Amino acid sequence: MKPICKKEYLELKPPGFGDTVADKDRILQALKPKYGDVYISMSTLKFYYKLLRNFDWELTVTMVHNSYSWEIIIIERGNTTDKNFAYAADLGSTTVIMQLVDLNSGNILGEESIVNHQATYGADILSRIFYVKDNDDHLKEIQQCTLSNFIELMDKLYSLTGISPAECGALIIGGNTTMIHFLFGIDPWFIFSTPYTPSFNRCEFISGRDIGLPFNGLVYCFPSVANYLGGDIISGLLTTDIHKRSELALYMDIGTNGEMILGNNEVMIGVAGAAGPALEGGISKQGMRASAGAVDSVRIVNNEMIITTIQNEKPIGICGSGIVDLLAEMLLEGWIDYSGRFVPGKSERIVLREGEYAVIYAWENESGSNEELLFSQTDILNFMDTKAAANTMVAFLLDELGIVPQEVKRIYMAGAFGTYINLESAITIGLYPDLPRERFVQIGNGSLKGACMLLKDEEELLAVESIVKNINYLQLGEAKDFLSKMYAAKFLPHTDFTLYPTVMENIKHRRCKEDSISNG
């Protein structure tokens, strides 16, 4: 490993008559043969200078590679090189996750997560942005909420491992453009107003103390590319090696927003846009995030519905992965047609409620709320908008490079949705391209993994800069035939059946099997 944070033990000659080298210069001179010109800020020196004379000049310096040079950020008595720790974090708009990493071994010593405290000011990002617009006091509140996420997670990891923030040299953060603006107390309104350009896309390494965090280490946030293509995506890309390989690959992170990158080591193009709350269950009255009691998988066998829930609790709603399964299974069984419309009479679970058809995925006696759980025709049509948006983004990228889906050799699925979704179901409804299944790779939380990866190898800073430089960000508003592509994608799996050959074969096989059973 070549960790971004290093420790060096020094035994220095004490100053005396004839040797009047200043304390700061004495330390820097000792490090220069191995590390070149090392930097120490005046604020760090001020924090430690009174202690230096009590160390008998036997001390350990903690240094972080700040893109340009090694910077001293902690000075300790004696030899503490056996303890080298740092944090990796994903600053998500919904959830914030932090890992404590041992940079001597590379092991993850602990991981904690919390609901983003910003949620107090709105479940969605736009509500928070309107809350702080032209109001400095509100902006300070949101910034403090953002910082309190990290402070609370540091406390949790301290309780878990016994390792305090004072012992950690760095915090690497992956987060979208808006979240990083909030972190530094900068109004993100420009991101959402013409011409949709952020106040900044990158920030230098900055002392945790300077932004209100209780540790002396340096904070680094992955740079963003544009308003909707943030550092969390750059962090995720770092884990895929798209930027190192000649084969064409597609990176997809679909959630409330959809971010996609298509390319290889020669060219990368990116696009991003709102996907909506559908993939987190937010389109349905009884939709919910992936938590205890959420229906997370659905199967229909011999016209009978079989569901599972998170933590095996009684069902109280349905989350994104359950919705994708539900639609895929109903399409395969003929409960809904290619336009997503219910076919009455195909199942007793298809009922008329409040003037529209719906499917009951849990009867009253089965649900944890003692009421029937429904997914309505309106819910389906709303989901189709989200699915169509994701499908159209992929089509847009393919058109820009002038290639067909079969030329994409690897598809990386990032984020919580990409981790837990049933791949076959997602392809069945046209959310992902119909390609050989072995080409799909679930990478989980790419933002967090990339942050951890950078902690362990400071040379990845160069890769980050290369990725950002090589991405050509495309505005969806410039897409040719975007509306016609969207309309074509609002069918299951698509109006062009030739794009989904295995899906059409599965539909044919499933319905032939059903007919044979029905005919005895």
TrEMBL record:
Residues 247-503 form the RACo C-terminal domain. This is DUF4445 domain-containing protein. Residues 1-81 form the RACo linker region domain. It comes from Clostridium thailandense. Residues 86-244 form the RACo-like middle region domain.
